[in-house]
Design a protein that fits this description.
14 strands, 10 helices, single chain, 8-stranded mixed sheet, two-stranded antiparallel sheet
């Protein structure tokens, strides 16, 4: 057995076994990323699609994703690659046939080749990138050496030690702050709100940060919760201890029935607009999504 230290789960994984996320394994007694360099998707996207609104707006970024996730959100829009049992249990041989296998060097070269189409760099997104942080680290380092930008789109569920490994090579992030109660995180998502908050707090001084909250009817849609969430964001500080959180963009997004939540109604548009107004009591930049 070897212990994985990427997130709060600290899975004990046997030789050749797989951790909860479906992407970490043990090889010769060492925990490693089974999904290293294995892409399920690659697309040249508008950066606003991440969503990131205040970092090189109008540009495009080469967006890549792999498979696996350390949360279990029942409303996941990418569940086929993030936590589908079929996808995560797929044998290595079949997985390799259906994935794009690429090295950090090849991906950095590809990003550079797309500069003439408006590409500014590479975004790690679609599934949860941090469960394969080694590929993120190795690729982002090369992308930055080529003078291009790097973006991380993540649930922020990782230990600070993992963040420290990638932070020198990441220019911007969008982190899902999915709600602002421990009950919501633990019972519905299978996650840790405190870990996400610690991750965001540490990352804010060193890169451009934007946050996203998907509003689920009856779960995290109260004005009180959004007031507390936006108030915490507003309190975040830079390296010198200056409060800069009021400048951090928050994206408040509308839920649509999907995956294991098809019995729910979509979030009312007027609810999204109202909660955005509540967040604007503390934050300068609040965006509404899926409306």
């Amino acid at each position: 057995m070897a212990r994985c230290n990427v997130c709060f789960r600290h899975c004990d994984i046997k030789e050749g076994g797989i951790g909860f996320c479906g992407a970490r394994t043990v090889k010769n007694g060492v925990v490693t990323a089974r999904n290293y360099g294995m892409l399920t998707g690659i697309m040249l996207d508008p950066i606003e699609k991440k969503p990131i609104s205040r970092f090189y707006p109008g540009s495009r970024i080469l967006s890549v994703g792999s498979y696996g996730c350390n949360l279990r959100c029942p409303f996941c829009q990418n569940y086929e690659i993030s936590w589908s049992e079929d996808a995560l249990s797929m044998p290595d041989q079949k997985r390799r046939r259906e994935l794009i296998e690429i090295s950090p060097e090849e991906l950095a070269d590809l990003a550079e080749a797309y500069k003439n189409r408006g590409n500014i760099g590479v975004a790690f997104t679609y599934n949860e990138p941090l469960i394969g942080y080694e590929f993120v680290r190795d690729t982002a380092k090369l992308v930055k050496e080529r003078g291009m930008k790097t973006v991380l789109v993540s649930n922020g569920t990782a230990e600070i030690e993992i963040l420290e490994e990638i932070l020198p090579y990441i220019d911007a992030m969008n982190i899902d702050l999915k709600g602002f109660s421990d009950d919501y995180y633990e019972k519905l998502l299978g996650g840790s709100r405190s870990m996400v908050m610690n991750f965001i707090e540490r990352a804010v001084p060193d890169c451009h940060m934007e946050l996203t909250t998907l509003i689920i009817p009856g779960e995290n849609d109260s004005e009180q919760e959004i007031r507390e969430l936006s108030g915490w964001i507003a309190s975040l500080k830079d390296k010198e201890g200056n409060v800069i959180g009021t400048e951090i963009p928050l994206h408040i997004s509308r839920f649509f029935p999907r995956f294991k939540m098809t019995d729910r109604d979509a979030t009312e548009v007027k609810k999204i607009y109202r909660l955005a107004d509540v967040a604007r009591e503390k934050l300068k930049y609040v965006y509404t999504g899926n409306c």
